[in-house]
Amino acid sequence: MKITVLVENNTSNSDCEPKHGLSLHIQTTHHCILFDFGPDGSTLLKNADVLGIDLSNVDVAFLSHGHMDHGGGLNTFLERNANSMIYARPDAFSSHVIKVFGKDYAVGVEPSLTNCPQIVLTKSSQIIDEELQVFSSPCGNVLKPMFNNTLYAEKNDVMMEDDFSHEQSLLITEGETTVLVGGCAHGGIVNLLNRAEELLGRPVDYVVSGFHLYDPPTKKTEPESRIDELAAKLSKHSTRYFTCHCTGETAFNRLHSLLGEQIGTISTGEVIEL
């Protein structure tokens, strides 16, 4: 399995453009996958071109959740690829806002895209085929990100604190290798990992996901005590972690000091082979 980071907050390739967001190109035995689309189409297209990724060859795509930094490039992808199905949660195209500094800021994905015939709305747990399955948040209450409390979603015409039912994670099984791919893990990375192992009936080999331990508007990181608790729980799994995006540098450095080589970070332009 080959994972190419098309969009992430940082870059290891000077020819690529970093942006706050995420998009991963994943090549497996049977699929050419796009997981998330970054914050805008221009960044997605530029980096894909630099990295030699032809988006028209993608045969299946996934939107992790309904936030612009993950779905802003979706419309551009649809213009480049008229065949791929895009799997998303039913509420992914609802209105989403962040409440910060006394104001509401829209952070949602273009709502009209829900009418696109290539969009497939997923169930809370759904097997796509022998390689791929998705499952949704929430699926537990262990160490959910504290900065979720500034995020709101519209339900029944009322803006409510987001329960992240619009978030989904992707499980890939290729031969004997299992990989859990997430966007921000708003549902809590420990909960997602536990749910993935429950569905698989075996340990997850790799996790590739943001952990949402950093809040960009306020530039705050979760307290060290919570990060230490998270590290202790992650260490109980035999999983290798690749984190990115909303984890934040401070939180990653602390996790790495506790977990060592069990955890790494990825950035725009990087390629990992699992």
UniProtKB/TrEMBL annotation:
What highest taxon heads this organism's lineage?
A: Bacteria
Cross-referenced InterPro entries: DHPS-like_MBL-fold, Metallo-B-lactamas, Metallo-beta-lactamase_dom, RibonucZ/Hydroxyglut_hydro
Which Pfam family, any one, appears in the UniProt record? Lactamase_B
Question: GO: which molecular function terms?
Answer: transferase activity
**Taking every annotated instance into account, which residue ranges of this chain make up the domain Metallo-beta-lactamase?**
26-93
- The signal peptide annotation in the UniProt record is none
Concerning PANTHER family, the annotation shows: METALLO-BETA-LACTAMASE SUPERFAMILY PROTEIN (PTHR13754), METALLO-BETA-LACTAMASE SUPERFAMILY PROTEIN (AFU_ORTHOLOGUE AFUA_3G07630) (PTHR13754:SF13)
| Name of the protein in its database record | Beta-lactamase superfamily domain protein
Recorded source organism is Clostridium sporogenes
